[in-house]
Specification:
Elements: H1 2-47, H2 52-57, H3 63-73, H4 79-91, H5 105-140, H6 145-159, H7 162-176, H8 201-208, H9 211-248, H10 251-258, H11 263-292, H12 295-300, H13 306-315, H14 319-347
Helix pairs in contact: 1-4, 1-14, 5-6, 5-9, 5-11, 6-9, 7-9, 8-9, 9-11, 11-14, 13-14
């Protein structure tokens, strides 16, 4: 009996040791990735031919003023020391002051990022709610006309430039049909009537019961969100089709059909349920892609999100804002990759072994 207890304790300690090693490896990977992101962002900012000192004082400033500004910014120090200072500031959440707005970059990002998150959230919902059923339909009707149509629609979503579709959408739905509001997030008439609480205007207007403002917000967001949703739908439908084709070829589907289960139950309650495990990861990564890839969409629709803020900062050589936005966007993408990995392990017990 003592030998059995020793064996059991040994196994328990072995499992704990493996778990600690897995957690330690996971943390090392995350830290290394984040440090790599900071390093690449910093050195790209130093390599490009833009002088931060000139961006602050202007091209016509005397050379003595430029040199004084460079010393104040620490640009006269060795590159490795500049990175060390930048690393300490970035890890403490200090990305400097924006030349364009004269506000701390963190303050600007906190103001603009909710607009991007609101746009990407609705776009992902549109993409998932349409893309998953289309992917299931294409898999069930493999080789049929419906399958070909779904694949063509997805291919167009991958191939057509987003700025071209955005301009076409404005021409048709705003200029011609006038179904949507002009570019922007909110009509100037309601600009001072809505009090931002969370930064998510749709939620703020709903909580305040300002239904007229909510309708105006929906008219502004529907077109850019639908555009992002289309690109998300193209990716999600393709992956759903692939997962469903794999599940429908499994033996448990053959056994379910042999038992006389209806095709609807087999598809939606068995095959799709098993395909939902990797599909959750796909949706999460699609959401992350919309958060970090909505720069062109925001520029076309004058959407006051982090993408438009980043574009304006690039045009005005505001490197503090550019580097801060890059780090935040990269951090969001890293975070969602970690989340998708954790969700996959949570939903599929086989991956924990």
């Amino acid at each position: 009996m003592a030998l059995t207890m020793q064996t059991s304790d040994g196994r328990r300690r072995g499992r704990q040791s493996r778990r600690l090693k897995a957690v330690a490896g996971f943390l090392v990977t995350v830290i290394t990735t984040y440090l790599g992101l900071l390093a690449v962002t910093f050195f790209i900012g130093r390599v490009i031919p833009i002088d931060p000192a000139l961006a602050i004082v202007g091209d016509r400033a005397p050379q003595a003023v430029v040199e004084q500004t460079r010393r104040a910014l620490g640009l006269d120090q060795p590159l490795w020391y500049q990175f060390w200072v930048y690393l300490k500031q970035a890890l403490s959440g200090d990305f400097g002051v924006s030349v364009l707005t004269t506000n701390p970059v963190v303050t600007d990002i906190a103001r603009f990022f909710p607009a991007t998150m609101e746009l990407a959230t609705i776009g992902t919902l549109i993409g998932a709610l349409i893309g998953i059923p289309l992917g299931v339909l294409a898999a069930v009707k493999r080789g049929s006309l419906a399958d070909q149509l779904v694949r063509v629609v997805g291919l167009i979503g991958y191939s057509v430039p987003i700025f071209w579709l955005g301009l076409l959408g404005l021409l048709v739905f705003y200029a011609r049909l006038q179904w949507v509001a002009y570019p922007g997030r909110l009509d100037v008439v309601y600009e001072y009537d809505l009090t931002p609480v969370t930064g998510f205007y749709l939620l703020d207007a709903t909580m305040a019961g300002q239904w007229e403002i909510l309708w105006d917000l929906l008219r502004h967001i529907i077109l850019p969100a639908a555009l992002l949703g289309y690109f998300s739908m193209a990716y999600i439908s393709r992956m759903t089709r692939s997962f469903m084709l794999n599940e429908l070829s499994q033996e448990y589907v053959v056994a379910a059909r042999a038992k006389g289960l209806s095709e609807t139950r087999i598809i939606w309650f068995h095959a799709l349920r098993n395909a939902a495990v990797p599909l959750v990861t796909v949706v999460v990564l699609s959401y992350a892609s919309l958060l970090e890839g909505s720069v062109l969409t925001e520029a076309i629709f004058s959407w006051p999100g982090i993408g438009l803020y980043l574009t304006n900062s690039l045009q005005n050589a505001d490197m503090n804002a550019v580097l801060g936005c890059t780090i935040v966007i990269g951090s969001v993408y890293i975070g969602f990759n970690i989340l998708s990995d954790l969700l996959y392990r949570l939903l599929d017990p086989r991956t924990r072994r």
